[in-house]
Design a protein that fits this description.
Elements lengths: L1 H9 L1 H6 L3 E5 L5 E4 L1 H7 L3 H4 L10 H4 L2 H10 L7 E9 L5 E13 L2 E10 L1 H23 L3 E6 L4 E4 L1 H7 L3 H4 L10 H17 L3 E9 L5 E12 L5 E10 L1 H23 L3 E5 L5 E4 L1 H7 L3 H4 L10 H15 L5 E9 L5 E12 L5 E10 L1 H16 L10 E5 L5 E4 L1 H7 L4 H5 L3 H5 L3 H9 L4 E10 L5 E12 L5 E10 L1 H47 L7 H25 L7 E3 L1 H15 L4 E6 L6 E4 L1 H18 L4 E12 L1 H6 L6 E10 L6 H4 L19 H11 L3 E6 L5 E10 L22 E5 L3 H13 L3 E5 L2 H10 L6 E5 L7 H11 L4 E6 L3 H6 L8 E4 L4 H13 L5
Parallel strand pairs: 22-24, 28-29, 28-30, 30-31, 31-32
Antiparallel strand pairs: 1-2, 1-5, 3-4, 4-5, 6-7, 6-10, 8-9, 9-10, 11-12, 11-15, 13-14, 14-15, 16-17, 16-20, 18-19, 19-20, 21-23, 23-27, 24-25, 25-27, 26-27
Helix pairs in contact: 20-21, 20-27, 22-23, 23-26, 28-29
Length: about 900
């Protein structure tokens, strides 16, 4: 009792205000004092605790060790704390448990040594620690799951933590990367940059969000990374390391480099073009211009880039130009073209033919416009001189070779000259004046309506489609102007019409002839060597078959070799026939049959690493087209597909019956609704972006490297499809391959049945005459000599013209037949024949060649009465031709 009173007198503040439980225990381990917080924390009243052993506040599992504490505390009393931060478990009166932190200290009194226990409820702290632990685990899980690399390094740059993604980026295993320095996977120069970047963050304390540098992986490969750097501080704000994110940006860097190179190429072409080019924003202000435009307008690039195009447009042309420009940016048209006047910086007026196109961004939103301006000032000045001359020499109109007319805006003729009457096939000027230009002269009345709607003041070289009185279509080049009254109201049009139908036909024929000449030369060169090889294979195959009995086990192998040689011969003939194609020869076709036939050639063309699949509609309708041109379409598209799949892939040819509805037509300009036959050519190649797709049908546009493509393949395909009355569209995206869809109109006519080639007549007998065989290809020469010798003939051989002359010089006996190749080094077969027949008039001549007809004609061989064998030929054909030549009379 006296002890308790002494304590109450000594510790009044502690008992009243302490936030923790305070329990005083005597040397027997019994409680002699407990404050109010003890009651709240453990649920006992003070009177219930007094005199109780201290173990009453602990769970049973802790009580058995408590006597040891008693012995330790009281056996050697000390005046300092006996224990701090002891984490135990407290137990309330109701039996519930909670974590506590206990601090023990001795209290020396006159009555003896006491122990003061300060007990703190650490439930919230434990919960916070548990939440922190879970948060750290979640943080570690998140760090490990991100694609980017995460790192933590000490102040020296040595790794203290990293995720698996960082190992993947750097190419090191986790155990090897831990402890490495972050400068060990870079070259000396880059390491210095890394050190400076981390040092800057250390000095300033400011994080660095982007630091691009090149790493060297463990395997020696190099990658580009983007690194963020943040300073790590301890509780006292002392810098202890760095942390950040490492992102592999190699692909982005390569894409940026490719974009930069592309932009440089574009800039080079942009500046080098002979036509003025300008790029403007959606408000018409110039943001780019090339030197040609700057020279044309007399402004520097800096001056132009502060101007809108209306500032250097002639006031009389500004309104029409602005109206078209508004329609363009509103999406009502993709481009527009007009001839307009420009005012140079020095005040002079120049004319330009302007073409403006709308360019869209990746989201298909209008982004900017690009204008191309061709300087036509000289031409306009010439036209003006012509118009002035026409006013002075009005009387010459009636005798002009070109058609001249005036017409109202509605198309009624006001005046015509005799040349126009003759051009259109009318009987008199009066009869033509009664006709309407818009509805009776234009093949498509809408064409004139569209021209009038453009509000052109002048036009030159405008090509339109007209028709004569009898309906015959003609192509006309128009030049003219709009005539206005004093108030500026349009009163009529004046026009000059030139019939260029024949000119266009001749141009088409010339282009075709040039193409055929080139292809013919190529096919002829191939045929010469290829046909010699086929000649040997087929010839020795025939000899082998003739020597083998019907039951000989090798006969089947020889027959298969012969069949293969015959198929190769057929392929050569197809190539030669293809090279001779000229204008379209439309026939009613089964497109499946064409695809099946071309498929045989494609399998040799595209290579073994490309899988070729044909998906054909067995109920496919018929189309009317030139089969050779359809083959050319498939070949061109297949070659492009092959080039788009350098690592191999899949090429699919598909046919189907389809019907194009109004919804499709609205989305595909140029298409008309109705039934069609679809030919689709799909590949799994690299694909194309929108910009490339917008140019693929333009002549000479190619994505291939220098010397690897002419850029005419797809423009040829486009022309063939359009000329066949069809339409073509392409679907493609980078990395998703390409599909060309060709729609040809379906026809109801039936196809004509083909006929098999008639069988060759049986071989003819041989003979005993002497034959001189002249052939520069030794294998072909030996084959012919061996075969003719086996048929009873005496055979002399020579490898060229010079040796043939020498053989004839040495052989004084008669030589009855000269069998000679046409194209040989040194002396042609024709030259050799002329010299030998001149000396031996009785000698007959047979010419042999693998070249096309055009090449043979150039050597003067295909004259009437000459005997000619086209390589490769069968030995039977050789025997019959030799016999017929020897037995013939008349011209050798």
């Amino acid at each position: 009792r006296e002890t308790l009173q002494a304590l109450q007198a000594t510790l009044p503040v502690l008992l009243d205000t302490a936030p923790d439980s305070i329990v005083v225990v005597n040397s027997d381990g019994h409680i002699v004092l407990a404050n109010a917080r003890t009651e709240e924390m453990f649920g006992y009243r003070q009177e219930e605790l007094l005199g109780q052993p201290i173990e009453i506040l602990l769970p049973e599992r802790f009580r058995k060790i408590h006597p040891q504490h008693h012995e330790g505390y009281f056996a050697a009393p000390r005046t300092r704390l006996m224990g701090t931060g002891l984490d135990l478990i407290g137990q309330r009166k109701d039996g519930s448990e909670f974590p506590v932190d206990i601090t023990l200290g001795p209290l020396k009194t006159e009555q003896g040594l006491l122990v003061i226990s300060v007990v703190r409820d650490i439930t919230e702290r434990k919960q916070a620690e548990d939440a922190l632990r879970k948060s750290e685990e979640k943080y570690r899980t998140i760090i490990q799951s991100i694609e980017d690399g995460y790192y933590e390094v000490d102040i020296a740059g040595n790794f203290t933590f990293h995720n698996d993604s960082l190992c993947r980026i750097l190419g090191y295993p986790p155990d090897e990367l831990m402890g490495m320095n972050n400068q060990q996977y870079a070259d000396a120069e880059t390491s210095q940059q890394v050190f400076q970047a981390f040092n800057q963050v250390f000095r300033t304390g400011q994080p660095r969000q982007e630091f691009n540098w090149q790493i060297i992986r463990k395997d020696g490969t190099k990658r580009f990374v983007d690194t963020s750097i943040h300073l790590i501080r301890d509780a006292a704000s002392k810098p202890i390391g760095f942390r950040g994110i490492v992102r592999d940006i190699t692909d982005r860097k390569r894409a940026e480099e490719a974009l930069r190179e592309s932009e440089e190429r574009f800039r080079s072409m942009f500046e080098a073009t002979a036509i003025g080019v300008a790029v403007a924003d959606m408000n018409g202000h110039l943001v780019e211009s090339n030197r040609r435009l700057q020279e044309m307008l007399g402004y520097s690039g800096e001056e132009l880039h502060r101007m809108a195009f209306t500032e250097f447009t002639h006031p009389e042309d500004a309104s029409a130009d602005m109206e078209l420009y508004k329609e363009l940016i509103a999406g009502e048209r993709d481009h527009y073209q007009m001839e307009k006047r420009y005012i140079r910086k020095d005040g002079r007026v120049v004319w330009g033919r302007l073409t403006v196109s709308l360019m869209r961004n990746a989201g298909n939103e209008p982004h900017f416009t690009i204008g191309m301006v061709e300087d036509i000032t000289e031409r306009k000045q010439a036209e003006e001189a012509v118009r002035q001359s026409e006013a002075e020499y009005r009387s010459l109109i009636q005798g002009a070779a070109y058609g001249i007319y005036r017409s109202t805006t509605e198309g009624k003729f006001l005046d015509v000259n005799p040349a126009l009457v003759a051009m259109l096939g009318y009987d008199s000027e009066a009869e033509l004046l009664a006709a309407n230009l818009a509805t009776e002269i234009y093949r498509d009345p809408g064409e004139r309506a569209r021209i009038v709607a453009q509000h052109l003041e002048r036009w030159d070289g405008l090509e339109v489609e007209w028709k004569r009185k009898d309906g015959t279509p003609i192509t006309v080049r128009l030049s003219g102007r709009a005539v206005r009254d004093a108030q500026g109201k349009l009163t009529y049009f004046e026009g000059i019409a030139e019939n260029i139908t024949e000119q266009r036909l001749l141009e088409a024929q010339l282009r075709q002839a040039q193409k055929m000449e080139a292809v013919g030369r190529l096919a002829g060169g191939v045929a010469h060597d290829f046909n010699n090889l086929l000649m040997v294979m087929r010839g020795y195959g025939e000899l082998l078959l003739n020597q083998l009995d019907a039951n000989d086990p090798l006969r089947r192998n020889a027959e298969e070799i012969q069949k293969a040689a015959e198929r190769a011969t057929a392929l050569t003939q197809q190539l030669l026939a293809f090279s001779r194609k000229q204008v379209l020869q439309p026939k009613v076709l089964d497109l499946n049959a064409v695809v099946t036939e071309v498929e045989k050639m494609l399998r040799r063309l595209i290579g073994e690493d490309i899988e070729l699949t044909a998906v054909l509609d067995l109920a496919l309708g018929r189309v009317k087209a030139d089969p050779g041109q359809i083959e050319q379409i498939i070949l061109n598209l297949a070659v492009n597909a092959r080039d788009a799949m350098p690592q191999g892939g899949r090429l699919t040819l598909k046919t189907a019956n389809v019907t194009l509805d109004q919804a499709y037509v609205r989305q595909h300009l140029g298409a008309t609704p109705g039934p069609y036959v679809l030919l689709a050519v799909s590949d799994t190649g690299v694909g194309m972006d929108a910009e490339t797709r917008s140019h693929i049908f333009e002549p000479f546009f190619t994505t291939k490297g220098a010397g690897k493509g002419t850029g005419l393949g797809l423009s040829t395909v486009y022309g063939i499809v359009k000329q066949s009355g069809g339409t073509i569209w392409v679907e493609s995206a980078p990395g998703r391959g390409t599909t060309f869809e060709i729609y040809l109109p379906l026809v109801e006519e039936a196809t004509a049945n083909g006929e098999l080639h008639p069988a060759l007549p049986p071989p003819t007998p041989g003979g005993t005459e002497t034959i001189l065989v002249v052939e520069d290809e030794m294998s072909v020469r030996k084959l012919a000599a061996e075969f003719l010798g086996s048929n009873g003939y005496r055979v002399l051989e020579a490898q060229d013209g010079a040796e043939a002359l020498q053989v004839c010089e040495e052989h004084r006996a008669p030589i009855h037949l000269l069998l000679t190749d046409v194209v040989m080094p040194g002396m042609s077969g024709r030259e050799l024949a002329v010299r030998l027949v001149g000396a031996r008039p009785e000698m007959k001549v047979i010419y042999v060649s693998g070249y096309t007809d055009d090449a043979i004609v150039q050597h003067g061989v295909r004259e009437e009465g000459t005997v000619f064998l086209q390589k490769p030929f069968s030995l039977d054909a050789l025997a019959r031709t030799v016999r017929e030549a020897l037995d013939s009379k008349g011209k050798k």
